[in-house]
Structure formats: C-alpha cells, structure tokens
Amino acid sequence: MNEGTTINASLLTEIVEMKRVYSALEAAMQHRKNVCIAITSAEQGEGKTTMLVGLAALAAKENGKHVLAMDLNWHAPSLHTYFGAELLDPEKVQNGASIHKIVHHVPEANLDVLPAVKEALMEELHNGEEETLAEKLLKKAREEYDMVFIDTSKMFPTNRHMIDPLVIAQKVDGVALVVASGKTSRHVVKRAHFELETVKAPIMGVIINDWQNPLS
User: Fold this and answer.
1) Residue 149 belongs to some domain of the structure
2) What's the pTM?
3) Can you tell me whether residue 179 is helix, strand or coil?
4) For residue 9, is it left (φ>0), alpha (ψ between -120 and 50) or beta?
5) For 73, what's the count of Cα atoms within 13 Å in the CB-facing half-sphere?
6) For 98-128, how does the pLDDT look when each residue is reduced to its tens digit (9 = 90+)?
7) CA dist., res. 170 & res. 150, Å (int)
8) What's the angle, vertex CA 40, arms to CA 35 and CA 43, rounded to 5?
9) Residue 65, Cβ neighbours under 10 Å: how many?
C-alpha cells in the first residue's frame, strides 16, 4: 500500500456524513453476524467505490471486527487502486485456495481487500463461469469475515462482461444505492430502485452523494 492511498482511506473515516451513513447501516444490521452489504449505483461516476472504502474503513475500526472490502465490479474495477493492490489472476482464484491467501491485507487494520479478477482473462470466463466464481468467492467471504462490503458494477447500461449487480443483490443482507446529487436523473434512479425491488433485494436505502444544502 502506498502512503497516498492510506491517507485517503483514513481521511474518509473522519468525514461526518460518512460516519452518519455507517451508523445507519450498522443499526440496520445490528446483532447480525457475517453481514454482506452491496454498494451499487445506477450509473458510472456516482462515487460508490469511495463510499465503500470509507464505510469499510469505519467498520474495521471497531474492536474485534474483521472486515473485507470486495470488488465484484470486474468489468471496470477501481477498488484495488485505493490500497495499492494488484488485480487477481483467475488461476489463483479458481484453485480453491483460502480467501485469506488471495486478499490484500491492509497494514495495522482489521481490513482486507479482495481485488477484482483481471479483465484481460475475462473472455475465458465469459460463458457464465465468472458469476459462478463470484458466487463462490462471496460464499467464502461470508464464512470468514464479520462484515463484507461489496463493490458492484453500475446498473445501467448493462454489459455482457459485467457481473449483474441484481444477481449479487439477491445474495446479500443489504443493498445501498449511491446517487450523485445533480448528476443522475430521477427517472434513472427510480428505475434502478424499481429493478432492485423487482428481484426482492434487501434495499437499505439511497445514499445521496455530494448533496449541497441550498439554505447553507
């Protein structure tokens, strides 16, 4: 991990709004163990990955809680860049190794990072196997961590290479939809929320990013 990314992740935990969002998620998941929360967005550039990094870092500050930040946005991954990690080689993931042998351990924190699988080899997995592999990793993560935060692909537009966030949404304990204020139209946000409801995803709420109080 390089110094710059370490400072950025640390600073995120000091943002008041980030703490409020985490408190709300924590209250919703109170008394539950091995919790998996997916962070998604309707479109690109909503700030969902930054939000996930801050929430995971806050969770890792709690005594005795082992946290995993997991990137299932294999088509356009970015989580690894926050921690100076490398993308995963599919061969290492597919050999059934313990998840602790393939994660990136964050120094001096109860936080691990599971980067995305290299897209360069995605064509070899595209026959549906990538979703199967993702589901296996998610199952392992749930078994071995107290709290898992999952970065998914954006919901629109869909891409044949991406792991469908709606599939992931059906396998987690909660889903938070990140929306950039003033960027994404209400129509698109409503459509994303409706599609999550259609698959009976456990929606925890909508996180409005970069919102400015017009009265301030």
Assistant:
1) yes
2) 0.87
3) strand
4) alpha
5) 24
6) 898 899 999 878 899 999 988 645 554 445 5
7) 13
8) 180
9) 14
Is residue 170 domain-resident?
A: yes
Parallel, antiparallel or unpaired: strands 104-105 and 147-151: unpaired
Strand-strand pairing, 67-71 and 111-114? parallel
Check pLDDT > 70 for residue 131.
no
Using the structure block, give the residue that is written with the tokens 């995305």.
116
pLDDT for 197 equals: 97
130: in domain: yes
Cβ neighbours, 10 Å, residue 102 = 17
What's the token pair of residue 87? 């993308």
Residue with tokens 């709290």: 147
Residue 85, amino acid = A
Nearest Cα residue to 78 out of 132, 151, 171, 160: 151
Determine the structural domain holding residue 47 and report its residue range: 3-12+34-209
Total number of domains in the chain: 1
